[in-house]
Amino acid sequence: MKAAGLLIVILTGGLLIYATADFPPWAYPQSPASTHVSPRYIEKSIEETAVPNVVTAVLADYRGYDTMFETTVIFAAGVACFLLLRIRVEEGPEEQLFRHSLTGMTIRIKDGRKAPSDLEEFERIDAHWVPQDLIIKTVCRILIPFIQLFALYVIAFGHHSPGGGFQGGVILGASVIVLAMSHDLRSSLQRMGEKVNALLCAAGVLIYAGTGALCLAMGENFLDYGILAPLFRCDPVMARSNGIFMVEIGVGIAVMATMIRIYNNVSSAGRYDEGL
Amino acid sequence: MTQLLSEILTKYNYWIYITLMMIGLYAMIAKNNLVKKIVGMNIFQTAIILFYVSIGSKKGGTIPIIKHDHGAASHVVHAAEYINPLPHVLMLTAIVVSVATLGVALALAIKIYHRYQSLEEDEILAQIREK
Q: A123 and A154 in contact (C-beta within 8 Å)?
């Protein structure tokens, strides 16, 4: 198997290297990719969409369909992780452990008796609980608001600087994942529960598709934002810019919720207990 | 010889992507452990991303964000001053999709581990043949 694999790899690599002879040199300004399609986008996008960042304009307007289905792929991946792994753990006869966060004392509630509801200062832990490092917890608690603020900036400023829904969504998702890693999965689930996460995940795709359907309802093609001008009270070119922004918000929400959902499911093997 | 050397030097981006992609492909074919196969798949995806981003670059070009003044009349934009935005658009989505597919692959690996108590391919195959 190893020899056959090596042979296949060397053959494929040799063929690919042979094919590079026909490729243009690196960063060659007259290469076909730089002379045929892209000048149209670079020269026209700012006057057609009023978005200086060509990548954002192409992503959400010229190739809007493609991006919509990429978002759907991400949504489907999140649903697939959920369906593969999520199992409902019965809160059965086994004992529950609660740890007092100030003194470190642990109490044990046996035989499925109901835990008292006024356990405000206690946190639920598992039998294999290990203490988290105080420095990591504190640093993450200080940093997370700034990470989220930066993520919102990246989404909102995607028209004028590198950024947009995908990048900002991933950073937002990372901020919640950092919380789950530095504390535990339960404390991140208190901030964003499973239902909220699933709703956000679907809402992001719905915002994207809904923006497209709104254009359709107002008598234009799907995802042709120019027709939304009366809604935004601006000219059709600026309406494209605003339509791109709506779509980017949808992408950001969907990507954030999906990243968190994949992490929650994979890190706890679908049991939603303490996590890593 | 000098011709070959200059050929390599002007196209070294392709050589790097091919090397990385073949490392990923070899890991996917020859490695026995499923997690190592997943790592190989990720190296493969990264190689493709590197390839696309490298064909987008242009000598003397800057990032594809059009310089503009606030409220001023539109001026002529020269395409030669900005690098090709299309590969960046395609790879932007591909990066996030690759993370999502990595998540699904890991979920499948967890499921397989729970069922067969192993991530080694030959042990799993032996258990399947026994049944």
A: no
Q: How far is B122 from chain A (nearest CA, A)?
A: 12
Q: For the segment A198-227, what is each residue's pLDDT rounded down to a tens digit?
A: 999 999 999 999 999 999 988 888 888 888
Residue B57: closest C-alpha in chain A: A27
Say if residue A28's pLDDT is above 90. no
pLDDT band at A112 (very low <50, low <70, confident <90, very high): low
Mean of pLDDT over chain A: 86
3-state class of A27 per DSSP? coil
Q: Is the pLDDT of residue A93 over 70?
A: no
Asked whether the predicted pLDDT for residue A98 surpasses 60, the reply is yes
Topology of domain B2-60+79-130, per CATH? Helix Hairpins (1.10.287)
Amino acid making up residue A94: E
pLDDT of residue A45: 84
B49-74: burial string, b at 16+ Cβ within 10 Å, e else: bbbbbbbbbbeebeebbbeeeeeeee
Q: Are A77 and B104 in contact (CB < 8 Å)?
A: yes
φ, ψ dihedrals at B62, nearest 5°: -110, 180
Q: Which chain B residue lies closest to A264 (C-alpha atoms)?
A: B103
Distance from CA of B15 to the nearest CA of A (A): 7
Please tell me the total number of residues recorded for chain B in this structure. 131
B71 pLDDT above the threshold of 60? no
Asked if the Cβ–Cβ distance from B65 to A265 is below 8 Å, we say no
Beta bridge partners of A123: A99
How many residue pairs from chains A and B have C-beta atoms closer than 8 A? Answer: 175
CB atoms within 10 A of CB B6: 11
Closest chain A C-alpha to B125 CA, distance in angstroms: 14
- Kindly list the domain boundaries of chain A, sorted by start residue: 47-88+132-267
